[in-house]
Amino acid sequence: MTTPIVVLVVENHPELRDMLIEALGWEGFEVVAARDEAEATHVLRNRAVDLLVSDPPSFEDVQRALDVLAALEREFPDLPVIAVAEEVPEPVYFHPWTTAGRKRTLRRPFRLSDLIGACREAVADAIEVQEQEEGG
Prior knowledge:
globular, 5 strands, alpha/beta, 18% strand
């Protein structure tokens, strides 16, 4: 039996969050949702998550946002992350997440197929391990 890939979606707009949950669910991912970084941190500390899809934290203070992202980076260094972004200055706002490993930014507006493709790419290693376990 295949264990589903768990995706944590962090989005504070309920309509968009529901649409992302539904679309990723159709693709076979198990989706857990959070409204903000506090809920996301709680989920990450209390259950196994294979991928984080996150809207940028909505802070007035960019330095505070960078501090929260850096703390999550230190606590969960191997977690693949897809940051869904508006047109923000990437080197300033996303620096801790775009320069390491499997962390990437998906610009808005995006097609659902782009998100699905980015998710599949981000968890490709986990999917490959599952397939090997099932095959032998």
